[in-house]
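Protocol step 4 of 6: structure prediction from sequence.
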Amino acid sequence: MNRLLAALLVVACVAAPVGAQTMLFDFGNTGQQTLIGGWNNVIYANPDPPPPIDPVVDNNGNVVAGVTLEVVDQFFINGPPSQLGTESPSGDAAAYPVSATDDYFFGHSGDFAGATDNPTGGFKLTGLNQSIVYDFTFFSSRTGVGDLRETAFAVTGANSGSGLLEPANNDSNVLSIDGIAPDGNGEIYVEVSAGPGNTNGNAFYYINLMEVNAVVPEPATIGLFATGLLLAVAARRRGR
């Protein structure tokens, strides 16, 4: 019994991550950049598209070797990004600075402010480690509105995940999409669009910020897991 318990403890320890790398991205206005160390600002000078973020830094300000972020499906760029997100982040969003929660990229369906139909916006992370799985957290906020502006996020690499987030007057809610592996080119693509519950006439959708966590497993994970299983089997046989 003691050996079986020891085996189960080994397996439990293996399942827990022993380290992680975090990348933080603020999408929005050139005048509302997050100047705290460890943030990557995705901005543009109207009407030019956002330049690639190269290099990307982690939350400690260290360069993440080889990783870049590039906008490949333009959001609305016929004017500067807006600053009408929350200035009072709370709940799950409380960990993020106002400079990141207040401004955003957005898109729309149909013509708007001199821009043509823009039902999706998207970007990709490149140069990712193909042996690591990435967890994504998104925050969207647009204050002072009375309709629903549900925003859909789809994250695609070797596998995919999706989810919905309501930005309307949102101070606290975030969306997590976990366990996405890079594709064969080391890339993950993120698409942002209006969700099915969006009731706005222009189907506005938003992204204020994104957090990406890469969980780094211990190198000996496989060996420990195998050892734990062997101990469990041996204990059961002796129990018989």
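Step 5 (inspection) to follow. The domain at 19-216 is CATH 2.60.120.430 (Jelly Rolls).
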